[in-house]
Write a sequence for this structure.
């Protein structure tokens, strides 16, 4: 919530309710002692946007903005952003995958262990008392396959409980913490296959993925689920692409 005085003298209070970025609808409860124009920014990734109040509809404004007239008193404004799954090229013929504001990743299963902090160049443990007990070094070992290539033409967005909001609605409550593994309601599915993706000499870090004719499926295609980046603690977020028969 914010209360401010505009240059024209209006004292305005705006309270925003939203599940953004897990949903792309924002509600603004606006109280003002004078009429004024409310402007909201339309992000580049939005395919379209709608701005509606209990007094009327908004319109586009210069500079990637939408504008709606707010009368004196109390108003309810609903701002909705429509978007599609989009991809961004990365190195070695890989892509990053987005929906709305969120980056999506393949969550890799992991076995996690921790110890006290190590000396970075010798890997010897620091003596007890060197650091607060909360200071830990973590090892994450994958328990599921990570050497995956996806077919971008099969990307599909899903939401566990899609909402059909109206201007007098309120966002549905979401359980937190929202970036815990499995918590976000959003996902993107795709068809994928395993590829021969070598490791570097020490066997702990992937080399660059194969490109061109060297990129081949090792077996049959299967379904994968991508999740918001922050909820996948061990993850692949720049994924090789491949054309699959489906």
């Amino acid at each position: 919530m914010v209360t401010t005085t505009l240059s024209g003298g209006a004292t305005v209070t705006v309270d925003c309710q939203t599940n953004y970025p897990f949903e792309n609808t924002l509600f603004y409860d606006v109280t003002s002692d004078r009429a004024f124009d409310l402007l909201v920014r339309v992000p580049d990734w939005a395919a379209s946007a709608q701005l509606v109040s209990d007094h009327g509809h908004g319109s586009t404004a210069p500079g990637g903005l939408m504008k709606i007239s707010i009368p004196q008193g109390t108003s309810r404004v609903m701002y909705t952003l429509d978007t599609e799954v989009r991809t961004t090229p990365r190195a070695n013929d890989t892509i990053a995958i987005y929906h709305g504001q969120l980056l999506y990743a393949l969550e890799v299963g992991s076995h996690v262990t921790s110890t006290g902090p190590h000396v970075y160049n010798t890997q010897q443990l620091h003596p007890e008392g060197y650091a607060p007990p909360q200071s830990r070094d973590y090892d994450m070992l994958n328990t599921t396959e990570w050497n995956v290539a996806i077919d971008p033409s099969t990307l599909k967005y899903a939401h566990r409980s899609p909402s059909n909001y109206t201007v007098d609605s309120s966002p549905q409550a979401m359980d937190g913490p929202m970036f815990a593994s499995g918590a976000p309601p959003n996902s993107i599915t795709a068809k994928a296959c395993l590829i021969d993706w070598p490791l570097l000499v020490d066997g702990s870090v992937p080399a660059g993925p194969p490109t061109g004719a060297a990129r081949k499926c090792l077996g049959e295609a299967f379904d994968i689920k991508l999740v918001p980046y922050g909820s996948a603690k061990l993850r692949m977020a720049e994924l090789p692409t491949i054309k699959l028969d489906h």
The CA atoms of residues 116 and 127 lie 9 Å apart. The chain has a mean pLDDT of 93.
